[in-house]
Amino acid sequence: FYDNSIGEYEIKADKWYASYVCTAKEKGIVKGKGDGHFHPEDKVNYVEALKIVLKALPPWRLEIPPFLSV
User: Fold this and answer.
1) What is the pLDDT of residue 69?
2) Given CB 3.0 to 4.6 Å as the disulfide criterion, which of 7, 10, 42, 60 pairs with 3?
3) Are 1 and 25 contacting, i.e. CB atoms less than 8 angstroms apart?
4) Over 49-67, what HEC string results?
């Protein structure tokens, strides 16, 4: 991704994760950190990883059956 604010590519094409990050960004799974940058060399914490996994999963609905009358 080209970052206009710093004038360079934030995700280098030769990195092993480049295609994964690009796909995730295209699908709206990731948007970068709170400052709008990806910081690709930073470690991903548990909460960030969980958010990525949950956004990557297809939507599902929990159907609760009605209570039985006794």
Assistant:
1) 59
2) 10
3) yes
4) HHHHHHHHCCCCCCCCCCC
* pTM recorded for the entire structure: 0.65
Contacts of 3 (CB under 8 A, 6+ apart): 9, 10, 37
Per the CB < 8 A criterion, the answer to whether 1 and 24 are in contact is no
Quick: pLDDT tens for 30-59: 888 877 778 888 899 999 998 898 888 877
Residue 56 or 3, more confident: 56
Nearest Cα to Cα of residue 21 among 5, 6, 41, 7: 41
Cα→Cα distances 5→1, 29, 42, 44, Å: 12, 22, 19, 23
